[in-house]
Amino acid sequence: MTNDLTRLSAADLAAHLVSGEVSSVEATQAHLDRIGDVDTAVHAFLHVSTEDALATARDIDSRRAAGEDLHPLAGVPIAVKDVVVTKGLPTTAGSKILKDWIPPYDATLVERIRAAGLPILGKTNMDEFAMGSSTEHSAYGNTHNPWDLDRIPGGSGGGSAAAVAAYEAPLAIGTDTGGSIRQPGAVTGTVGVKPTYGGVSRYGLIAMASSLDQAGPVTRTVLDSALLHELIGGHDPRDSTSINEDLPLLVDAARQGAIGDLRGLRVGVVSELSGEGYQEGVSARFAESLDLLRSLGAEIIEVSCPHFKYALGAYYLIMPSEASSNLAKFDGMRFGLRVEPEDGPITAERVMSATRGQGFGDEVKRRIILGTYALSAGYYDAYYGSAQKVRTLIQRDFDAAFAQADVLVSPTAPTTAFKFGEKLDDPLAMYLNDVATIPANLAGVPGMSLPNGLSDDGLPVGFQILAPAKADDRLYRVGAALEAALENTWGGPLLAKAPELEVAR
């Protein structure tokens, strides 16, 4: 029964909980057992909160038995990326500089998760301060892709994606600054959604780039993502960038989409997000998915977003500039790591230098240096200012494209998962993994990646859907329709084709 429980979607598991066939304690313990069995190999988790999760599960079982009206996902376990603060649980952002830090408060989305009664299984591994595309930049070791343990699970949220793909958690929280939910989704065969900027509160997220960061769901099905998105989304007065409007009806959109009728929908294929540089199998699966959308009644058109080719360059000026500012708080003075110089006077400047020198990894240092340079006197207008102008042009490209099409589509990532170390010494090659996902963050529009098949190397490929700001429901309608058509073609979920992980005994 344990294996059966871990293989259920969150929606199906929730239905079993409501019917009384399964208790939350049983479901939570099954996932904790699964973590114990496979996480030595996968290393998706940095911290497993066994007692906390089981205490929540017992509470939900008691309240359900008493006849309380509970949230639809009450009792369904969840994992949380370690960049999201959790009261009483370690939060490190994958960095030595926050080793053993226990936050005194919860992020808004964690408050909502706790209030709904979802047991938190633990905190997932990530590239340090969400800076990376492979989870190789974590200070606590690599996370491995469940499809092939010698390959990366994507980044920065590789831990959340790997946990869901390895059946260690039915739901997880990720964050997406330039593709850190969607790109791991593509290479692990999971569903990842970046909501509209401001659609999910950023209060309690350890910021990398405040104008780009966005938390969102990581799941195995489109419906599960809709259920989790509706739970964590909505206005938060503690976040000045939070949208003060109700969310669209995301779950309804997913259920409607699963019916498979997309007549009247215009799907725009972004010409700049395909072609040279995309793996042959990625392009082939993308073309097949377009044919499936046509078969469901969608009209497929080609759209051009000419300034997308400048998105990577603009992003790698804006993001490091904001990161340089946001990470200034980690100074060895107030919380986290403190390193004092071995000799000489102990001054604030020398403590700060020693702490940051030892506490930050190479990739974080690289981006801080780049961002500080871009913001420095004499260079601000030439670099950061110019990048913001490019950002405006990209937003205008989206406006023009959405005047022609209801949604835009592309491959999520140019390639399937690569092997550890393959791109670690070539930052530009690593950054190019996010070439298709970055434009959505620069414009603040929502995006989804869902698995759409295997490449010729037997590894999963992702299909990206983008919608206008605050039209996240379109992602779920189109995503659910394509998912249903694909699973009908495959005879079941893509993850069922993944090799079984060796269980630790």
From TrEMBL:
Any one GO BP annotation for this protein: translation
Protein name in the entry: Glutamyl-tRNA(Gln) amidotransferase subunit A
Active site as annotated: K81, S156, S180
A cellular component annotation (GO) from this entry: glutamyl-tRNA(Gln) amidotransferase complex
Catalytic activity: L-glutamyl-tRNA(Gln) + L-glutamine + ATP + H2O = L-glutaminyl-tRNA(Gln) + L-glutamate + ADP + phosphate + H(+)
SUPFAM superfamilies, per database record: Amidase signature (AS) enzymes
Ranges in coiled-coil conformation: none
Alphabetic keyword roster: ATP-binding, Ligase, Nucleotide-binding, Protein biosynthesis, Transferase
Organism of derivation: Oerskovia enterophila
Keyword Ligase: yes
Matches recorded under HAMAP family: GatA
Function: Allows the formation of correctly charged Gln-tRNA(Gln) through the transamidation of misacylated Glu-tRNA(Gln) in organisms which lack glutaminyl-tRNA synthetase. The reaction takes place in the presence of glutamine and ATP through an activated gamma-phospho-Glu-tRNA(Gln).
Record EC number: 6.3.5.7
Any one GO molecular-function label of the UniProt entry: transferase activity
UniProt cross-references to InterPro entries, sorted A to Z: Amidase, Amidase_CS, Amidase_dom, AS_sf, GatA
Subunit structure: Heterotrimer of A, B and C subunits.
UniProt gene name: gatA_1
Family per similarity comment: Belongs to the amidase family. GatA subfamily.
All copies of domain Amidase, residue ranges: 26-475
Keyword tRNA-binding recorded: no
